[in-house]
């Protein structure tokens, strides 16, 4: 690609972009939601025509693109679509991909779900085996078994691929180079996603240093100009023009997009016991969902549900919430529960509605008599101001939901979720389409959330970061409760369902582990233990600043309100410091005791 420029709605997506993808490249394509990742991929695939520039594919080379929303008009079944364009002797490739990706080729197009359509599109691409595969969020709607199959296939292919994914474990395992879209520029780094965050932070740090130097130079030149006027000396016009050029350079710099100002609104605390399930059994037709299942979920627990698609995770979740009756057994819900739900299907979003109407039209968020305000955490807030906190600009407020990218839809759903108070969060595949920075923030919010979380996810990295308990649903009514996240589940079980290569690696690591003293900490607890020293240091620094402020004897009489706020903040920081130190001691003792 050379000299590629593309503009949508007045704002340039890319300007004078030059990019080369080599044979055999394994590239992660990363960037913030809405930065243009999918658009760049469509330009590479020839589906979007740039305003200027050329895309060249050498003779004899082929490029294949996996569409997020494939058109299947004219085909009767998913298999007909997936095998179109293949020679009769190659049809076995679709059957093989269908087994690995778990879609039924005989499924009629009109009855197929969005996830089944995407799996058929992915199977079609894998069967065609082009020289360059363009994969836009291929793991969405795949369970962990299918992700493991796809990871092995891509790991073994000789073809090049460019990969957009929210799944960090998937990106780390497969990529050897990284393309990063940031404010219309595309940078390439000759290391895989594993090194991306370190590289990104270094680039941003260098950028901040350059901006700081530029600001200092502008201040110096501006001071010279003012002094020149005040001294009535004839100014050097060339130097004045240079100052104007410096200011123009600063104005032309595109500000980095910050992190979304997300915050979970906690309700009054629930009771200590949130959900108690005893002896649950449930059967649909000839499929047994659970058999004699017990669970005790307490306030503050983060319970993850994992297992193949169709195994019954959503059904079990509904039983635990009292929305579905078990055939046998009982569920007792705790007191004072307020539930908020993040829906994988985005059913809470009407694609034809504007973002504005999506928020103001929600009965739970509506402010009586105020068409431009919504209720957030019990307080009215202007709808555009709230959308800006989730990184939407003013121009998007009246745009239709259907115009948003997948990640932007997820952010809008999070905006609706976080405006309402809750003490029990139900998150069904919340990580789909979110960028790395928003995923990090969501994980931190869940770490700090006072309530209880029930999580359905196929994202192994996110499960490890968040879950304190994992319920593995393995079919035929088996639902087993394990302590910790995904890696803890694998270590305790000793294998990965449907992945022979992983079974071998895990069993080897288990043998090694067994020769070492066990820490006694789950993955989440280890992660927390690593974070606590920095948290304690931050609190100590804040306490020192507050104590320095309050050491001024005249502060109370001069600024009584400021003094009162500083006093309250100091008490709060001391309490948090005490709790953090107590938590650190408890985890250290647990680690050493084991």
From TrEMBL:
Renumbered residue ranges of the record's region Disordered: 498-520
Start and end residues of each ABC transporter domain: 1-208, 275-509
Alphabetical list of InterPro entries matching this protein: AAA+_ATPase (IPR003593), ABC_tran_C (IPR032524), ABC_transporter-like_ATP-bd (IPR003439), ABC_transporter-like_CS (IPR017871), ABCF_ATPase (IPR051309), P-loop_NTPase (IPR027417), Val-tRNA_synth_C_sf (IPR037118)
Listed Basic and acidic residues bias regions: 498-517
Oxidoreductase is among the record's keywords: no
A single MF term (Gene Ontology): ATP binding
Protein name listed in UniProt: ATP-binding cassette domain-containing protein
Organism: Ruegeria haliotis
Lineage of source species: Bacteria, Pseudomonadati, Pseudomonadota, Alphaproteobacteria, Rhodobacterales
């Amino acid at each position: 690609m050379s000299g590629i420029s593309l503009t949508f709605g007045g704002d340039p997506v890319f300007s004078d972009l030059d990019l080369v993808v080599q044979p055999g490249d394994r590239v992660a394509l990363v960037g913030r939601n809405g930065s243009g990742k999918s658009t760049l991929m469509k330009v590479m695939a020839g589906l979007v025509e740039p305003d200027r520039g050329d895309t060249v594919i050498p003779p004899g080379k082929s490029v294949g693109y996996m569409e997020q929303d494939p058109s299947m008009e004219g085909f009767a079944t998913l298999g007909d679509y997936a095998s179109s364009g293949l020679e009769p002797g190659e049809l076995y490739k679709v059957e093989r991909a269908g087994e690995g990706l778990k879609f039924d080729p005989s499924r009629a197009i009109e009855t197929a779900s969005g996830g089944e359509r995407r799996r058929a599109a992915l199977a079609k691409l894998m069967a065609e085996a082009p020289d360059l595969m363009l994969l836009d969020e291929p793991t969405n709607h795949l369970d962990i078994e299918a992700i493991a199959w796809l990871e092995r296939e891509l790991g073994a292919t000789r073809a090049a691929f460019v990969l957009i994914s929210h799944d960090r474990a998937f990106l780390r395992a497969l990529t050897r180079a990284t393309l990063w879209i940031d404010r219309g520029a595309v940078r390439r780094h000759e290391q895989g996603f594993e090194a991306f965050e370190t590289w990104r932070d270094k680039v941003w740090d260098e950028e901040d240093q350059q901006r700081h130097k530029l600001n200092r130079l502008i201040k110096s030149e501006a001071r010279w100009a003012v002094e020149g006027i005040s001294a009535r000396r004839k100014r050097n016009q060339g130097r004045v023009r240079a100052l104007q050029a410096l200011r123009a350079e600063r104005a032309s710099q595109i500000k980095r997009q910050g992190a979304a100002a997300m915050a979970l609104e906690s309700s009054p605390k629930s009771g200590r016991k949130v959900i108690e399930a005893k002896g649950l059994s449930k059967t649909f037709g000839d499929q047994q969902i659970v058999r004699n299942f017990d669970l005790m979920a307490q306030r503050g627990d983060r319970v993850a549900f994992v297992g193949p698609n169709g195994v019954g995770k959503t059904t079990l979740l509904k039983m635990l919430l009292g929305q579905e009756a078990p055939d046998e057994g009982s569920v007792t819900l705790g007191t004072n529960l307020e539930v908020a739900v993040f829906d994988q299907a985005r059913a809470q979003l009407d694609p034809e509605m504007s973002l504005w109407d999506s928020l103001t039209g929600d009965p739970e968020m509506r402010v009586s008599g105020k068409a431009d305000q919504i209720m957030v955490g019990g307080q009215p807030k202007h709808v555009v101001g709230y959308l800006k906190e989730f990184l939407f600009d003013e121009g998007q407020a009246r745009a239709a939901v259907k115009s948003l990218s997948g990640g932007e839809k997820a952010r809008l759903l999070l905006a609706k979720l976080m405006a309402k108070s809750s003490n029990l969060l139900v998150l069904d595949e919340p990580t789909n389409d979110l960028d790395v920075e928003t995923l990090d923030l969501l994980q931190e919010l869940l770490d700090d959330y006072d309530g209880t979380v029930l999580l359905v996810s196929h994202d192994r990295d996110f499960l490890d970061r968040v879950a304190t308990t994992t319920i593995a649903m393995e079919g035929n009514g088996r639902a087993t409760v394990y302590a910790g996240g995904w890696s803890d589940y694998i270590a305790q079980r000793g294998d990965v369902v449907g992945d022979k290569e992983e079974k071998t690696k895990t069993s080897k690591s288990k043998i090694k582990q067994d020769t070492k003293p066990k820490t006694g900490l789950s993955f989440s607890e280890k992660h927390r233990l690593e974070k606590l020293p920095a948290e304690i240091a931050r609190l100590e620094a804040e306490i020192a600043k507050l104590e320095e402020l309050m050491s001024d004897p005249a502060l109370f009489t001069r600024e009584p309100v400021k003094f009162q706020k500083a006093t309250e903040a100091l008490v709060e920081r001391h309490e948090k410091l005490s709790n953090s130190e107590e938590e650190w001691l408890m985890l250290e003792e647990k680690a050493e005791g084991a």
